[in-house]
Amino acid sequence: MAPTRSAPAAAAPDPGPGPGTARRRAPEPRRRTRRRTRANPLAGFGAFIWLLVVGVPVYALLVATLQRSDRYLESGPLTPPGDPTLENYTKAIENGFLVFVGNTLLVTAGVVALVVVLAVPVGYAVVRARTRGTDALFRFFLLGLAIPAQAVIIPVYLIIRELGLYDTLPAIVLPTAAFALPVCVLILTGSMRDISDDLYEAMALDGAGQVRTFFRLVVPLSRSGISTVAVYAALQAWNNFLFPLILTQSREQRVITLGLFDFQGQYRVDIPGLLAAVVLSAVPIFVMYLIARRSLVNGLMGVGGK
Amino acid sequence: MSVSAPLRTPRRRPGGPSVGRPGAVWALPAALFFLFFAVIPMGLVAYLSFTSWNGLGTPQFVGAQNWQRLAGDPVMHQGVLLSLGLTVGSWAVQTPISMLLGVWAAGPQRNRAVLAAVFFVPLLLSSAAIAIIWKALLDPNFGPLARIGPWLGLDSVSLLGSPSGAFAVIVFVSAWQFIPLHMLLYQGGARQIPASLYQAAEIDGASVPRRFLHITLPQLRNTITTSSVLMVVGSLTYFETVLILTGGGPGTSTSIVPYLMYRFGFMGYEMGYASAIAFTLVIVATAVSLVMVRLTGFGSMRSTREGM
Questions:
Q1: Nearest-CA distance from A32 to chain B in Å?
Q2: Does domain A90-299 have CATH number 1.10.3720.10?
Q3: How many CB pairs under 8 A join A and B?
Q4: Least confident of A39-53, A74-88, A176-190
Q5: What is the pLDDT of residues A47-60, one digit of tens each?
Q6: In A98-222, which ranges are continuous DSSP H helix?
Q7: Distance to chain B for A191, nearest Cα, Å
Q8: Is the whole model's pTM more than 0.90, yes or no?
């Protein structure tokens, strides 16, 4: 975690005393220094209300997945099930959920690899090159922020079909990666700007060429930016709905989001089964949240994390 | 546009002696890739909007027919208004709540960890998953709201069944989904505010609301911009939520522009007309993001410590 000066002081929700407190300057001797002198009951009350707004649906969701589907229709969703069962989860898995997870993982890995390989050199060129071309390129990527995926899905569909990729996983990977590029270039240029000129000079004095400078200096020093980019790209791939919806068709190529959409069409009455699949779809990201919370949060925020 | 890297740039820079610099060639693969899958498709959308095409054969050039139709299509007018309404509504609902929660979460409360963990849940779910959850919760026959709604004075049967109710549900569900993210942004922003400012205000005897108004708000300026831009761009490209929760209905009362594009293009196979709709979306989004690049000063370092 190389802290860049421009990054927010860990926006992650932190258990216990977080960086917000750790970064504090020397505390005043008398009484607890409060960063904020808002013993603000109103804000606390607001937070409590929001806790209900988020907590109640999540509770209802989890309870529903433990109900037998026939019981769910009778006893309603908010009563805790008398005999909790995991059959909804097993049912979701039997219905091919693991295939969808596998596909999503493949797509995600492909998108992350592609984006990192393509975007990191762009960041280097934008920050270091002195040619007009790179400035123009940077603007070009910035303008790309303005292109909504929905707007170009029709030609993308045409292109993918012409390439003979329709209904394959690469069909999802290519456009998803392309649309993640602008934000990734932004994040990377932001983090590479912090590498000081002296280091480049030192590399040059050592007789290092461009390629060696890139791999020995730029890549190691922009690790945090690269991991943010990787997480951002992964989330884009993980949650993408439109590209798979339009560019794939068969069950074998289905990703999780589409799988859920499809279950929803099938399981008109089996709400617990459907919701169990929804919960399963969140498990991988939840695991990632437990392992690498800060990277996940930075990745979620994309541009905003800068 | 030169692509070859000059071996040595003899130009004098105020940054010391010139060292070897990468040329634009480093950025070329990504640029070409992006060109192929995003920029060229933009041009194609513009072209296709002047054709009649069912998605299978060859597009036939028909002049401005699609655009004339679009100009006179009440559903499309409604769609643009709905998209703008959704954008404004989302911003108006999400910004104040996110800001208050974020500023509150940046404070020293003890129980923050538990709360933050719960607040974080919506971020773990995809848009599709969230839409499905709310569809189940709002189900007029089996959903919880059908049972507890009467106590709250809400009638779930009418929620997704009435135009204004369905629109309100879309705004609410998007808020439920995105407020945690913006709350994190504001939390990060609020943490950057130097404590000394508050101490000074406290010594001057400024009240809590005044401190919020004169310290917190101005200091959060950058955060507000960033967050607002994300919200606006997000609302313009809303799709899954509408598709799953309301299917654009009841009637066409939640058919926002991206949904109309999908409906005409991939359900009705009128790809030419759908391209015209899509291009309308490009125009709106471009205008928004030009403003956004202006405002946020992307590409230049922003100081969060002005006057310190």
A1: 11
A2: yes
A3: 373
A4: A74-88
A5: 888 888 998 889 88
A6: 98-128, 132-144, 149-162, 169-192, 197-205, 210-213, 219-221
A7: 11
A8: no
Smallest Cα distance from A284 to chain B, Å: 9
| Continuous H helices in B160-256 | 163-191, 195-203, 208-211, 217-219, 221-236, 240-245
Counted domains in chain B: 1
Give the residue among B43, B271, B126, B173 at the shortest CA–CA distance from A300. Answer: B126
Residues comprising chain B, all counted: 308
Q: Which residue has the tokens 């009649």?
A: B52
Q: Inter-chain contact A11–B185, Cβ cutoff 8 Å?
A: yes
Judged by CB atoms closer than 8 Å, whether chains meet at B37 and A174 is answered as yes
- Residue B72 included in any domain: yes
Show the tokens assigned to B13. Answer: 């820079």
Give a yes or no: residue B20 inside a domain.
Answer: no
Distance (Å, rounded) from C-alpha A122 to C-alpha A138? Answer: 8
Are the C-beta atoms of residues A62 and A81 closer than 8 Å to each other? no
Question: pLDDT class for A241, splitting at 50, 70, 90?
Answer: very high
A273-302: string of b/e by CB count within 10 Å (b at 16+)?
bbbbbbbbbbebbeebbeeebbbbbbbbbb
Domain that holds residue B236: 57-297
- In the predicted model, what is the mean pLDDT of residues A149-154? 89
Instruction: Mark yes or no for CB contact A40/B104 under 8 Å.
Output: yes
Q: How far apart are CA A244 and CA A99, in angstroms?
A: 15
Task: Choose the most confident range, by mean pLDDT, from A76-80, A105-109, B212-216, B247-251.
Answer: A105-109
- The alpha carbon of residue B16 is apart from the nearest alpha carbon of chain A, in Å, by 9
In angstroms, the CA B236 to CA B229 distance is 11
Report percent pLDDT > 90 for chain A.
34
With CA atoms as reference, the chain A residue closest to B56 would be A158
Segment A7-30 shows an average pLDDT of: 39
Average pLDDT (B112-122) is: 78
State whether residue B139 sits within 8 Å of chain A by CB. Answer: yes
How deeply is B164 buried, as exposed, middle or buried, from its count of CB atoms within 10 A (0-12, 13-18, 19+)? exposed
Q: Which of residues 44-63 of A touch B (CB under 8 A)?
A: 44, 46-47, 50-51, 53-55, 57-58, 60-61
Asked if the structure places residue B221 within a domain, the reply is yes
Residue B1 domain-assigned? no
Q: Which residues between 22 and 41 in chain B have a beta carbon less than 8 angstroms from any beta carbon of chain A?
A: 22-27, 29-31, 33-34, 36-41
Residue B107, Cβ neighbours under 10 Å: how many?
20
CATH code: domain of residue B90: 1.10.3720.10
Where do the domains of chain A lie? Answer: 55-84, 90-299
Eight-state DSSP code of residue A215: I
Report chain B's C-alpha Rg in angstroms.
25
Amino acid at A161: R
